[in-house]
Amino acid sequence: MAKGLKKGDEVEWSTPQGKTRGQVKEKVTGEKRVGNKGQKGSKGSKDDPRYVVESEKSGKQAAHRAGALKKR
């Protein structure tokens, strides 16, 4: 579990296609639309934030819990 993530941190996470690498773009502690077209909703909180990450391969963005991300 990655703790203390901040904007610019390099991380990796698992997807059905395998490991993906990218960069933390933002910490979300409220409700936010995420994705390149704002199509996905994310609900983070102070106690359980979500981190918006951008894939280095595809450039797509998604929000993940800290437990799903591994700092590189």
Can you describe this structure in just a few lines?
0% of the residues lie in helices and 53% in strands. It has 72 residues and is mainly beta.
How would you describe the overall organization of this protein?
This protein has strands at 10-15, 18-28, 31-34, 40-43, 50-55, 61-65, 70-71. It is 0% helix and 53% strand. It has 72 residues and is mostly beta strands. It has one domain (10-71). The protein contains no helices and 7 strands. The strands form 2 sheets. Strands 6-5-2-1-7 form a 5-stranded antiparallel beta sheet, with no helix packed on it. The protein has a two-stranded antiparallel sheet with strand order 3-4.
Top keywords for this entry?
single chain; about 70 residues; mainly beta; two-stranded antiparallel ribbon; about 0% helix; about 55% strand
User: How many β-strands, per DSSP?
Assistant: 7
Would you tell me the overall average pLDDT? 88
Q: Briefly note the structural class of the backbone.
A: mainly beta
Q: What is the tally of helical segments?
A: 0
Helicity range: under 10%
Strand count, sense and barrel status of the largest sheet are: 5 strands, antiparallel
First and last CA, distance? 12 Å
Q: Could you say which overall geometry the principal axes of the C-alpha atoms support? A: globular
- The fraction of residues assigned to DSSP E strands is over 45%
Domain module count: 1
Enumerate the spans where pLDDT stays under 50 for 5 or more consecutive residues: none
Order of helices and strands: EEEEEEE
Rg is: 11 Å
Sequence of strands across the biggest β-sheet: 6-5-2-1-7
